[in-house]
């Protein structure tokens, strides 16, 4: 088709405009850094920049609010891209020093550079920070490098180029073939081949059909989709437009969970900007291809991440899964053929179209191609968002990128894939992570949440935690899931409360298998995974709770007592003041005591005692 | 449903329905807007919406309202305190933080809104700010890396502002 926009020319103009910005100061404007005060940091930089005209490079300075860099733990992050410098944990009070010393004077501020947890040295260049150095970013390539709210900056980094090319060539089948050849699989959980999904939906071409983006990232501990939507929204929009062109749809929905207000705001702005510039909406780039996008806000239901439940929710109903078939490809939203892909999947599309299927499939393993984002959290030094080639081992992720376990604690397990996933142990650290190997080990890639657990995490409690989550989120449609999760939770509660019996374990396993076999949707089918995997790898902890009535990690409240050691207590009264229930008594400079009948074992006293005189048994 | 119900201004509901588009598929968006106004979903508002929009009944509206965790049938506080209990926050100690919040606001025995209607407290399953765990969100503001002491300071500051 004939286009009325020369995307290469637009790119050149946009790149020139970025050059004209002079000294670029990138400040992270993701949810995490905003919480740590990045907006104030930006304002301060702007204020300082407005009054000074002699800089170490360029004659003016521009402060660029970016999306999430992924290194949330170290926020507020300030990056000087030309100087390859990343400043971490920047506070408002540090801004002036960075400005005067580095931006004006050309001398980096040593104390604000990242400190490597292994070598304890300041890292000078951002490419040398292990957290970034070991990653390969495709979906997240621009997150943190461009102004997340600027269409022009997105265009400067190849935004809408793939869409323009696809429209010019006007061959939807070739687009589908490229995605098929790339080996891209659904990044939302199950890993269904994306190209096949497109092909099935395209087979129903003719009438009205829809493209839906699943941005209902409900897995606790996962925030990669949020980062893409907040940090590079145009990439998602472009991916959706390419998908719509390939399957012949003219309307689309992005379903975003309501807990992500910033993502919703940025997406709305991105859609409005793209429509105004004719990259979306009616007659895109002057062709006869039109694609209108709407945003639907979720209302807090985990099960809506399941595609048929998500469709029900967009239609304004209770978000309950529907039996498949019919699959959404045949009969989806409002009864029409519908393509549903997750955010990360769609964010990979423009890059694949631009660099080719071969490039994409050169990364990864035999069955799982490309890169995958993981949200690395829990007891690890560098928490944050990472993207690595499929097949990277857990050891590389946790110990190289993640910088090891915090506080020198011992690694115990890593929980993968949220409430549908499982816990893996030390023996799996060298397992190359892909869809098949993880499923075989009893976990799943899922959305990619990696929660690292150390020696002081109780695995039975973790199983209880996840079961409580799935019990609450079970929609109630299938009896095995509705009643099974409830009863599994009851048993797990019994065990963590020290009232477990050996026969409970048999019932637990039996229930787990019934729920797995007898549920309609993915939520129910995978709900028992945390139980089954902890039973498999941490049976000794279950036994300790049941037989010895002890919690080896010292977590389960019913099985521990908090005590004050008289020989160490100096009577400073801090614990008595900290205790939320007033269970600690004593006079100043005299050893204090805990009234065990009042103690709720919250450990507030333990963490606050300056003399380490409070212990748990 | 408990407590006294607010008097509903039906012209306001009409406005919301028109603004969102009075279609069945926009029910969730309509309920979200209504909750923004009243800080909960008054029974009268739900019945009204259920009668007004084609293809809906009050029962369907009630069904949708009770399905989604975001909707509340009881008034929420002026300050909605959301304590994240997602996996990352849980592992890093969100429960002591929640206990401290409840203790500071005198919320016991399953109560979740303070008597003066100033605060309501709930746990949520992940706010996507896992790098900053444990996290508490009050209205739209995110408070990172909370401890039982730090959250008390936050609540005290709000209380001081309110008592001015």
Walk me through what this model shows.
The complex is a heterodimer of chains A (617) and B (164). Chain A is of the alpha/beta class and 617 residues long. Chain A is 39% helix and 13% strand. Chain A contains 25 helices and 17 strands. The termini of chain A are far apart. Chain B is α+β, with helices and mostly antiparallel strands and 164 residues long. Chain B has two domains: 10-67, no CATH class; 79-163, Glutaredoxin. The radius of gyration of chain B is 18 Å and the shape is elongated. The two termini of chain B are 33 Å apart.
Task: Write down the oligomeric state.
Answer: heterodimer
Sequence of strands across the biggest β-sheet of chain A: 10-9-13-11-12
Domains of chain B, number: 2
Element order of chain B: H for helix, E for strand: HHHHEHHEEEH
Q: Structural class, from secondary structure content of chain A? A: alpha/beta
Total count of helical runs of at least 4 residues of chain B: 7
Q: Say how many strands of chain B there are.
A: 4
Question: In angstroms, what is the radius of gyration of chain A?
Answer: 26 Å
Global morphology of chain B:
elongated
User: Runs of chain B with pLDDT <50, length 5+?
Assistant: none
Determine the N-to-C terminus distance of chain A: 74 Å
Would you identify the CATH architecture of the largest domain in chain B? 3-Layer(aba) Sandwich
Q: What is the rounded Rg of chain B? A: 18 Å
Number of E-type strands of chain A: 17
CATH topology of the largest domain in chain B: Glutaredoxin
Low-pLDDT runs of chain A: none
Determine the most extensive contact between two protein chains.
Answer: A-B, 66 and 49 residues
CATH topology of the largest domain in chain A: Rossmann fold
**Fraction of helical residues of chain B:** 40-55%
- Average pLDDT rating of chain B: 91
